[in-house]
Amino acid sequence: MRLRPATSGDYDAVVAVVDAWWGRAVSASLPRLFFDHFAATSLVAECDGELAGFLVGFLSADHPEEAYVHFAGVHPARRGSGLGRRLYHRFIDGARLDGRTVIRAITSPRNSGSVAFHEAMGFEVGEPVRGYNGPGRDMVTFVLSLSGDRA
């Protein structure tokens, strides 16, 4: 398994599989701009030249102590292998090197797998925030303090 920084060229491969990996339409939440402007802080995992997983994250421009994971995914056949944890650890290490002390993320309240994963990684899991992403778009927030993380 090879983990590497993403490139803008990875967008097409990721967007081609993300809806199938989630089992529903989620690709609209992953516009190309993340691969064009945050590739250096995002990651791609490959196995034998095939996409196995990815993490799209960035260092906050407005909150210099924070980094944010926008989207992460692991091929369904590789879930439970520790790949998601490896992607997060690599992102967290990069955030630490940049002096970040907080990692944030969000997910849909119906994404119980994501909630369980973040909780297992040591994130504080918030209650769903009504209208977080607009009317009818509630989201669960996650916060990981790097001063006492269990990740």
Approximate helicity band: 25-40%
Bin the strand percentage.
25-35%
Biggest sheet character: 7 strands, mixed
**SSE-based structural type:** alpha+beta
Looking across the biggest beta sheet, what order are the strands in?
1-2-3-4-5-7-6
Secondary-structure element pattern, one letter each: EHHEEEHEHEE
Silhouette: globular
Unreliable spans: none
Computed CA radius of gyration, to the nearest angstrom:
15 Å
Helix count from the secondary structure assignment: 4
Task: Name the descriptors.
about 150 residues, alpha+beta, seven-stranded mixed beta sheet
Characterise this structure.
- With 151 residues, the chain is an alpha+beta fold.
- The protein is 27% helix and 28% strand.
- The chain has a 7-stranded mixed sheet, with helices on both faces.
- The chain starts with a strand and ends in a 6-residue tail after the last strand.
